[in-house]
Protein: Gfo/Idh/MocA family oxidoreductase
Organism: Aquimarina addita
Amino acid sequence: MLKAGILGAGHLGKIHLRLLEQSENYQLIGFFDPNEKHAKAITEEFGYQQFNSLQELIDAVDVVDIVTPTFAHFDVAKQAIEAGKHVFIEKPITNTVAEAEELIALAKKHNVKGQVGHVERFNPAYTAVASKIDNPMFIEAHRLAEFNPRGTDVPVVLDLMIHDIDAILSVVHSEVKNISASGVSVISETPDIANARIEFENGCVANLTASRISLKNMRKARFFQKDAYISIDFFEKKCEVVKMKDAPKEPDDFAMILQNAEGIKKQIYFDNPDVPSNNAILDELDTFALAIQNDTTPIVSLTQGKKALEIALRVIACFK
């Protein structure tokens, strides 16, 4: 088992503490949080070992799970990597692309692995259909959330939209050609609602909307490709795959048949996979452990985290 420690024990950090304690791939050693009062309260409530400094935590573990505010990611990850420790970093990977590139270079130099916490890659609705998404040419994603003061220190693009950016980059195997976007600050000092149009070299177009001032939660994405339509509901953990094939000469009475202007007939049918129940955060942590143990590339590598950040920052740069 890999010895793991958590840096940052806020809302998400406490979830990571609980899940690492449950995992069969890690031995939870403890945590460090610079807020002494908060850290002490967590120790008293849950019994987790509290370290007095980041360096003490790093010295005691094999893997450092970084669940701090984004502005701290680079400095603490650099310290851990230079000590030869593997790092799991919550999204976004860092504040800047330059910082991300330096972490990637350091990880290679010190022969350690890193993974970025783009948890939607482990959402069961996504994993159930990811292999069926083949050369999509139009993608539409809506990620809407009710207002929560937590996270409003960064634009909604880095808070919410980056989840969909990462998912889309994982299935569109082409470079981004052009980005246009707009964002509006309604409550926060940074944009609370944003829309982006991402055009790829291969002709694919992705239209993304993110909001953190909605009246209801929604996390949906739709992928359109030749002879297929795939819908993913990340929030409800449901998916739908609608496909088309040449209609048989003698379709049965219940077959759904469409005929275009040229007289070509297509049959519509559903190919919905089973969606297993899982804990996406536990899965991402466990697959990282397996990548370390088997010396394979993590599912969401530092390089992929950097790419998602790069596109997110290009979206933000479009705002006026």
Notes: The first helix runs from residue 11 to 22. The first strand starts at residue 2 and ends at 7. Residues 29 and 119 are 23 Å apart (CA to CA).
